[in-house]
Q: What sequence folds into this?
């Protein structure tokens, strides 16, 4: 091959234009010029705004996976927090429901106790607060048991009342509990006084209907439906003035000289929970005087010679 036909131009790799120093100076000057122009004359501001508008869809598209990742993690984390908060709220709601039920029960109990203790200033006898345990299972009697006994100062025969009135009487005392016979029991009896007429009579349990009946009452006696009966205090057991019952029926029989009067006890054992056990009234009565000495002893005392005196 003849040498004249050879291409003597260097390949592109070895071609060299301006030197690197020249390029550095050029671009540095250009950058400095653009910065001064942008600072002084705001020439690059429209270009920057246009470039931002053009690149905005690309930026939003590139930010979608990142937003999806953060949004999904926040959703899952928020879902877990919501479930945990729901569980805590359910536990707290159950606690609040229990507390509300207990508060309502304590409120009702407080009202009963306040109504029960309101009777204490009018009473001049010692009283012991007690709680009803259960009712006796005997179908032929009406008795309840309370959680106070001999160790608490309860005596046999003590009256038992609640906030409505007389409930019954203690008939048997144990060490830690006592048996109370209700007014509606067939063996119960209580002397009463009509508040309207001040007429005294006796109420007996075991009657049909309400369960308390005035016996041995004259057919012409002044008694009406709605009359309130209270304790008369003549028996030495019940203090006077305690509410007992209300007259609900008066039947005057022509063939008999007595009237049949039925009473509704004001205190019911079904809704009684807290009661007061009163000291029997007889414990406050003065002691009976000693019996006089026998006549024989008096004669012997009168006929006995004095000391130092000679016998006749």
A:
């Amino acid at each position: 091959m003849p040498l004249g036909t050879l291409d003597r131009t260097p390949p592109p790799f070895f071609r060299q234009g301006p030197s690197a120093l020249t390029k550095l100076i050029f671009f540095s000057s250009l950058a400095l010029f653009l910065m001064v122009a942008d600072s002084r004359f705001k020439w690059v501001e429209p270009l920057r705004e246009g470039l931002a508008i053009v690149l905005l869809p690309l930026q939003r598209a590139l930010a979608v996976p990142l937003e999806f990742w953060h949004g999904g993690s926040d959703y899952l984390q928020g879902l877990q927090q919501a479930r945990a908060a729901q569980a805590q709220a359910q536990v707290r709601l159950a606690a609040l429901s229990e507390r509300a039920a207990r508060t309502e029960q304590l409120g009702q109990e407080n009202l009963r106790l306040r109504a029960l203790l309101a009777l204490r200033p009018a009473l001049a006898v010692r009283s012991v607060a007690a709680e009803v345990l259960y009712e006796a299972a005997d179908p032929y009697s009406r008795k309840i048991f309370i959680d106070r006994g001999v160790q608490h100062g309860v005596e046999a025969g003590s009256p038992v009342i609640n906030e409505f009135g007389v409930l019954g009487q203690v008939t048997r005392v144990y060490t830690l509990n006592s048996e109370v016979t209700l007014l509606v029991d067939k063996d119960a009896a209580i002397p009463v006084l009509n508040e309207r007429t001040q007429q005294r009579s006796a109420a007996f349990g075991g009657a049909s209907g309400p369960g308390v009946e005035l016996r041995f009452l004259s057919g012409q006696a002044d008694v009406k439906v709605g009359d309130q009966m209270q304790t008369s205090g003549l028996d030495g057991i019940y203090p006077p003035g305690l509410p007992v019952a209300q007259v609900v029926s008066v039947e005057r029989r022509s063939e008999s000289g007595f009237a049949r009067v039925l009473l509704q006890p004001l205190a019911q054992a079904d809704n009684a929970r807290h009661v007061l056990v009163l000291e029997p009234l007889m414990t406050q009565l003065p002691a009976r005087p000693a019996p006089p000495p026998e006549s024989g002893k008096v004669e012997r005392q009168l006929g006995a010679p004095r000391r130092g005196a000679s016998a006749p």
Summary: The longest helix spans residues 45-117. The radius of gyration is 53 Å. Residues 19-117 form one domain. The chain has three helices and twelve strands.
